[in-house]
Design goal:
The complex is a heterodimer. In chain A, about 70% of the residues lie in helices and about 5% in strands. Chain A is mainly α. In chain B, helix 1 packs antiparallel against helix 4 and helix 1 packs across helix 8. Chain B is built from 14 helices and 2 strands; from the N terminus they run H-H-H-H-H-H-H-H-H-H-H-H-E-E-H-H. The chains are: A mainly alpha, B mainly alpha.
């Protein structure tokens, strides 16, 4: 009944819907940090520019949040609709964190988001800070529960196998404090801050290039590039470095595939450029840094790294080329991000950021790249996990809902693609419109001013 | 322990039905209620930012079902494949419609989103009702406890059934009516002036239709599921649900008599919650009733994770519930002054 075909379409469907969904939470989670900081400063210093920044980005946050919520529900459904085999097998464990996410994080986040976006006039600056902090905690907590769930699939701990062959939770603390989850959380949340930094900087750069809203442009650029440089450094070191080391520790074969390392060798090189040629077991036209892979894995340039050929082929990740490219795109972009943000911070310290037009253009056009890097990073994690659904225990091919047909999955996949295209166009149009209207058009009630509401325009003026 | 978790799930679903019920209901009566685009704007504004919070009740219900009864979760979500994907798409459309309708001030823009808000909400209400009807009637389980539901087969209620039949279609329509009435009385309580009068009138008409439909659904349910009402009467935990329905109906009667939505709204909340609780208790311990001869029904005890885990889970779940109650109090205290402030 279960064919490779349905496995393929179900994977594409989940991969597509989850990647699309995650475009929104990564900005929400990163922005929540910015908003909390700005609300804190607005409360402590009383400066209008922080209030204005927090008010403006809260509204953008609200739109993002909604799209994140509506595109997130499909994930929870799909565990049952498409991955019934997996849900039966591992539900006794991963059901815990999915339930926790709803009970602890979603209720918390969604109870306060209304107050954060619409509550400017009703709450004191201190209360606004606390409300924003609550949204921040809720969104990051939600991220933690999801990452614990993912970490269990990457590196299962804290479980026991029941008599009927299903997994049941054996230790809550081992499961919730999975070392994989801790590192993954640090790496992933820093990446979310990177995304938000680039978005905030890009809006600042846009205003600066147009010569509009100069005050806000300066605030966005100052904060976007400062937090941007810090997060770009942390996402690479120590969190990215630790993530690579734990992949090397627990998913040796995945690391070999990520790096395109076919043969085992001492002093393995790290490929910067090159295409994996799986049929001939080699990298075509590589440009490599000798010894660096060994160093990355162990801290010594001479250590032996086991290549793909040291493992049976039925344990190799099922799409080595894609895994290799995804990983290299992430690493390459991450390095460029440090460079861009580094230059921006230097210019800022020299007081020239607002007038460096070329740099501002770079910051503006950098906008999509953190999204690409994050998506590539997640592709690396999930493709590297293959052919396992729960690493070493349960293969992806076993995870399907037994009565499902591949045409049915393809049908719903196309439905999602069509609907998400509409959602994406709407999102871009509305975000673009809010950004063009600019920070001064956002009223204290958290809605843009329109002619219908024209009577109440005083809020923006005295702000 | 299994009973407790089943009860928690039923209560979460009842909370969802009441809370998001009025959001969905406002969508169902979006045009019936409002004579002009300005009133439709008021109707949407009346929902406030809390609708996503209400939707979280369903998400948390799903998570808790997955946690406590993974087998039922897996077979039911896969079995209701098309219905649930339609629910998902309707949820996406509805959420987008609520949020973006008032973001651009343009007549045609408003018209598009008004229509989509109505359409997606009505589809949601219908699908919720049809799904409930399917749970009451039973599903065509196979020997492994799996099933798959086509949209319809022969519209019969035995053997190889489909999503739609002579029982589930009336239940679906009844749900559209009930949620629509609930939404109208919500709008009536939260609005003012001329709009309030129209909403109250709509709520009266719709609740009258619901009260007329309730005996029909009761008789149909007795025909489809023979043991349902005897079991309902023999299960003490179902009695509060029945009491809620009766009490709610009394409030509704008073509200209808006086034409006052302040009685209709709590009455509707009680009836909806009561129906959910009574039906949930009367079905226990069967979670998925089998309509076929070759497979037994799926029961709560067999699907639940081990008792020790359920007990341990209760610790964190209780803590979380207390937390939710705590800040809910804080938020509601402020939100009550809220909605019509802008």
């Amino acid at each position: 009944m279960v064919s490779a075909d349905i496995d393929f379409w179900s994977r594409i469907q989940f991969g597509f819907t989850v990647t699309y969904h995650y475009l929104f939470p990564q900005l929400t989670m990163g922005l929540a940090l910015f908003l909390s900081l700005w609300r804190l400063l607005a409360w402590r210093t009383g400066q209008e520019r922080y209030r204005s920044a927090a008010r403006f980005w809260s509204v953008l946050f609200g739109l993002n949040f909604v799209v994140g919520v509506v595109t997130g529900i499909p994930m929870e459904f799909q565990f049952g609709t498409n991955w019934g085999g997996f849900s039966r097998y591992a539900g006794g464990v991963i059901g815990q964190t999915l339930a926790m996410e709803g009970m602890f994080a979603f209720f918390f986040e969604s109870a306060f988001i209304g107050a954060m976006v619409f509550g400017e006039q009703r709450f004191s600056p201190r209360a606004l800070f606390l409300i924003t902090l609550a949204v921040f905690c809720g969104s990051w907590l939600s991220g933690y529960f999801i990452l614990v769930t993912n970490a269990f699939m990457q590196h299962p701990v804290g479980y026991a196998t029941a008599a009927d062959g299903t997994l049941q939770i054996a230790s809550f603390s081992a499961y919730l404090l999975n070392p994989w989850a801790l590192i993954e959380f640090a790496h992933n949340m820093t990446a979310a801050v990177v995304t938000a930094s680039f978005v905030v900087s890009a809006v600042g750069a846009f205003y600066a290039l147009r010569g509009i809203f100069p005050e806000q442009a300066r605030t966005f650029l100052d904060w976007g590039t400062a937090i941007g440089l810090a997060s770009c450094l942390i996402v690479a070191f120590p969190t990215g470095d630790q993530q690579a080391k734990q992949v090397a520790r627990h998913q040796e074969v995945a690391l070999a595939a990520m790096e395109g390392q076919f043969a085992s060798e001492k002093g393995a090189a790290m490929n910067i450029i090159g295409q994996p040629d799986v049929a001939n077991r080699r990298i075509d036209n590589p440009i490599a840094m000798p010894g660096v892979l060994s160093f990355l894995v162990s801290g010594s340039f001479r250590t032996e790294v086991r290549g793909l050929q040291a493992f049976p082929e039925d344990q190799w990740p099922s799409n080595i080329e894609l895994l290799y490219y995804a990983y290299h795109v992430m690493i390459g972009l991450g390095t460029l991000f440090i460079l861009v943000m580094g230059v921006a911070v230097v210019q800022r310290l020299r007081g020239r950021l607002m007038t460096s037009r070329r740099l501002l253009w770079v910051l503006l056009f950098a906008l999509p790249f953190p999204y690409i890097a994050t998506s590539a990073g997640w592709m690396t994690a999930e493709l590297g996990r293959q052919p396992w659904l729960v690493y070493g225990l349960f293969r992806t091919i076993q995870g399907q809902s037994p009565l499902l047909q591949s045409g049915t999955v393809l049908f719903t996949l196309i439905g999602f693609a069509g609907l998400y295209l509409v959602v994406g166009v709407l999102y871009l149009v509305l975000m673009g419109r809010l950004i063009l209207l600019g920070p001064t058009a956002i009223r204290h009630t958290g809605t843009p001013e329109t002619s219908e509401d024209g009577a109440d325009s005083t809020g923006a003026a005295h702000g | 322990m299994v009973e407790l978790w089943y009860g928690i799930l039923v209560l979460m679903l009842a909370a969802y039905l009441v809370l998001d019920g009025w959001n969905i209901g406002c969508g169902v009566v979006h045009f019936a209620l409002s004579a002009s685009p300005q009133e439709r704007r008021l109707n949407l504004r009346g929902l406030g930012p809390s609708w996503s919070w209400h939707e979280v009740w369903l998400i948390s219900f799903g998570g808790t079902l997955f946690m406590a009864f993974p087998t039922v979760y897996a077979s039911s979500f896969a079995g209701f494949y098309f219905a649930f994907f339609l629910v998902l798409w309707a949820f996406i459309l509805r959420g987008i419609a609520i949020e973006v309708r008032n973001m651009i001030d343009d007549g045609m823009w408003h018209s598009v989103w008004d229509a989509l808000f109505w359409l997606s909400s009505t589809l949601l209400a219908l699908l919720i009702g049809v799904s409930a009807g399917n749970l009451l009637r039973g599903v065509p389980l196979d020997r492994h406890g799996d099933f798959t539901l086509p949209f319809f087969t022969d519209f019969g209620v035995r053997g190889a059934v489909g999503l739609l039949d002579w029982f589930t279609i009336p239940v679906g329509l009844f749900t559209v009516l009930a949620l629509g009435a609930h939404g109208a009385s919500y709008a009536a309580v939260h609005a003012s002036g001329e709009f309030r009068a129209r909403a109250t009138a709509t709520a009266r008409r719709w609740w009258l239709a619901v009260l007329a439909g309730l005996p029909v659904i009761t008789v149909l349910t007795a025909c489809v599921r023979a043991g349902f009402f005897p079991h309902l009467l023999a299960t003490p935990l179902a009695w509060p649900g029945v009491a809620l329905v009766l009490g709610g109906a009394a409030l509704l009667g008073r509200g209808l008599w006086r034409g006052d939505a302040r009685w209709l709204f709590p009455g509707g909340c009680a009836v909806l919650a009561g129906l959910c609780i009574a039906a949930g208790a009367a079905m226990f311990p069967v979670m998925l009733l089998s309509t076929t001869a070759d497979a037994p029904s799926e029961c709560a005890q067999a699907s639940a994770i081990p008792h020790a885990t359920l007990g341990a889970t209760l610790l964190w779940w209780g803590a979380a519930a207390l937390l939710v109650g705590g800040y809910l109090y804080f938020v509601l205290r402020h939100a009550s002054q809220g909605v019509d402030a802008h």
